[in-house]
Design brief:
Blueprint: H1 7-12, H2 32-52, H3 69-76, E1 92-100, H4 106-116, E2 120-128, E3 131-137, H5 147-150, E4 156-161, H6 176-188, E5 201-206, H7 209-218, E6 224-229, E7 235-243, E8 246-253, E9 269-270, H8 286-302, E10 314-322, H9 329-342, E11 345-350, E12 360-366, H10 372-375, E13 382-388, E14 393-395, E15 402-404, H11 405-420, E16 442-447, H12 453-469, E17 474-479, E18 483-488, E19 496-500, H13 522-527, H14 565-579
Parallel strand pairs: 1-4, 5-8, 6-9, 10-13, 16-19
Antiparallel strand pairs: 1-16, 2-3, 3-4, 5-10, 6-7, 7-8, 11-12, 12-13, 14-15, 17-18, 18-19
């Protein structure tokens, strides 16, 4: 781990180096400054324990992460499974997505998600100091007969509200995350006309599209209603609605009135050529998904606590991201890394040879080598990057300002460069504990932890090596019991790709999240005494610096120190001594 060189570096606590393949965590020697701090922390612990009742935590040393040929052969050549067999099989899959909640919209967003999106276990989770993760679960179908297994429905959608996090490319500019969300909302003009920013969306399957239309209309939401040709015959219907700048699309079987899209009583219109029909196709088996939802209703009516089915009434099936050019060098690199490192399949559609979509191109990313028990058989989530050549610009109806998809990508890249490359030492190992608010706009790709455990550590370090080798900035966060999360400054993408390895492999200085400070670090919030009165940290972990891995206890929402004032004072003094 690099030494703290000055007061600024000591204050930020952001220069803990990620381990690289082939290096055991036990070989990661602390620097002289770290030894000094560790010694002082240990010496002070007796005093602290007497005052605050502290007990010491023991860190775990991760195994060496050399990518052996034996292990590589397992995951580089996944076994093709019978899709009718519902059993565990290790693999990568999309497990969550998140976007940004404009400042002051927590209640509005939470209400919409709980009442309209069809999710279950909806909550606004306190992340500290007016920061919230507004979340619902949209689970996969799983044969369950106990409460533990029933909690393994692995689909999550979030909004992140975090007004303290960095998000401006230039200090004081009028954009940042709030400015961009406002611009997009204003450009939609009450969903009166399609524009390219509407390709940024969550797509949800619902069993009754007309009921969803009535529900949204009764709550005075402006919607856009469209039809797509369905691959099994007939049409799928789409209802799009904006929630504070980000699009939700609900899809399902088109109503009977739209068997002929030109019928007078059909209130849906086919996607136009300029709207890129290829970007809106529904690739899932809607019949199977309808059956999954129906089984849940039957289970509830029968009074069974557990069983096959869903707690939610809709399923997350896709995410889309507007792109200025899916064939750029940066996007080609993104697709190559996904294919080579996570075994993603990338399929292209649209273009001049595509019927109905000659002015757009779509890259659809999917995973077939899934852990089916946790990621689903029929509700595979896909990710679509969309370049709509006819819809590259949009204009705010309020300000009359026009911005392009390229402007949005460039702005986010500038924010990432400004905040994710500090301190400016030139050493990429010094830049993994930073953060900016645009990282909260991400889609998560999970490697499900499975046996042998070495396999997970190997993947963890393979992702580390990939990001370092290609100079991709990253905000890495560690969640105890939930693995390491690599939030990447994905080149030319307005949405970050987040890799979650479901295992922890880290160096001293690993941090969980906390929106009490701009760096989104609960360790830093603790040391700077920036936490509020809610939540707690297992404070013992913060002084266990003789180990090479610090694990912060509690979930990602528990960033706020509930420590005795004397304990805070002692740690503050120790930090001051370390700087001197």
């Amino acid at each position: 781990m690099p030494s703290y060189q000055n007061a600024q570096e000591a204050e930020t606590l952001l220069e803990a180096a990620p381990l690289t393949p082939g290096k055991s965590a036990s070989l990661n020697e602390p620097s002289s400054s770290t030894r000094k701090f560790a010694g002082m922390a240990i010496a002070a612990t007796a005093l602290i324990a007497g005052v605050a009742g502290v007990t010491h935590a023991t860190g775990k040393t991760a195994p060496a992460a050399a990518l052996s040929e034996e292990i590589k052969s397992d995951w580089m050549n996944p076994i093709v499974e019978n899709p009718t067999v519902h059993e565990s099989s290790t693999g990568w899959y999309f497990y969550k997505s998140a976007t940004i909640a404009r400042t002051g919209t927590v209640d509005v967003v939470a209400d919409f998600m709980a009442r309209h999106t069809g999710g279950s276990a909806c909550d606004a989770v306190n992340l500290g100091c007016d920061g919230y993760k507004i979340t619902c679960v949209y689970g996969a179908d799983s044969d369950v007969d106990d409460s533990t297994t029933s909690m393994m429905w692995d689909r999550q959608l979030h909004y992140v509200h975090a007004p303290k996090l960095h998000s401006h490319a230039v200090d004081g500019d009028d954009m940042g995350t709030d400015g961009w969300m406002d611009f997009m909302e204003e450009s939609y003009d009450g969903m009166s006309e399609f524009n390219g920013f509407m390709h940024n969306k969550f797509t949800m399957f619902t069993g009754d599209i007309e009921a969803k239309a009535v529900e949204l209309q009764n709550d005075n939401h402006k919607t856009m209603k469209r039809l797509s040709v369905y691959h099994e015959g007939g049409y799928s219907a789409s209802i799009t609605v904006s929630l504070k700048g980000y699009i939700w699309e609900f899809v399902g079987f088109a109503p009977d009135a739209c068997a002929n899209p030109e019928a007078a009583d059909c209130s849906y219109a086919l996607w136009s050529e300029d709207e890129c029909p290829a970007a809106h196709t529904v690739d899932v088996n809607m019949t199977a998904l309808t059956g999954m939802i129906a089984r849940e209703q039957e289970r509830k009516q029968a009074g069974d606590q557990f069983g096959t089915g869903y707690a939610n009434s809709s399923m997350w099936i896709s995410n889309s991201i507007a792109s200025s050019n899916i064939f750029s060098d940066e996007m080609t690199l993104n697709f190559d890394l996904l294919k080579n490192r996570t075994q993603a399949q990338v399929r292209y559609s649209g273009g001049t040879e595509s019927a109905g979509s000659p002015t757009c191109n779509v890259a659809t990313i999917a995973y077939a080598n899934m852990n089916q028990e946790y990621s689903g058989q029929d509700d595979h989530v896909t990710l679509k990057y969309v370049t709509n050549w006819k819809q590259q610009n949009a204009t705010s109806k309020r300000t009359e300002k026009t911005y392009s998809i390229t402007d949005y990508e460039t702005y986010i890249a500038r924010v990432h460069k400004k905040y994710l490359t500090r301190p400016h030492s030139g050493n990429p190992d010094d830049m993994w504990r930073n953060w900016d608010h645009f990282l909260d706009q991400h889609i998560g790709i999970k490697w499900y932890r499975d046996t042998p455990s070495d396999m997970c550590y190997n993947h963890n370090q393979d992702i580390t090596s990939m990001l370092k080798d290609h100079h991709i900035s990253c905000g890495k966060r560690a969640v105890d019991g939930d693995g390491d999360h690599f939030y990447t400054a994905t080149p030319a993408s307005t949405m970050s790709l987040e890799y979650n390895t479901e295992c922890n492999y880290g160096a001293m200085g690993e941090t969980n999240i906390c929106t009490c400070n701009a760096e989104n670090s609960n360790e830093l919030a603790f040391f700077k005494n920036e936490t509020d009165q809610n939540g707690s940290i297992d404070d013992d972990e913060l002084v266990a610096t003789t180990t090479t891995s610090t694990r912060l206890q509690g979930g990602e929402a528990e960033c706020n120190a509930d420590a005795d004032e004397t304990y805070l004072w002692v740690l503050t003094v120790l930090m001051g001594l370390m700087v001197r």
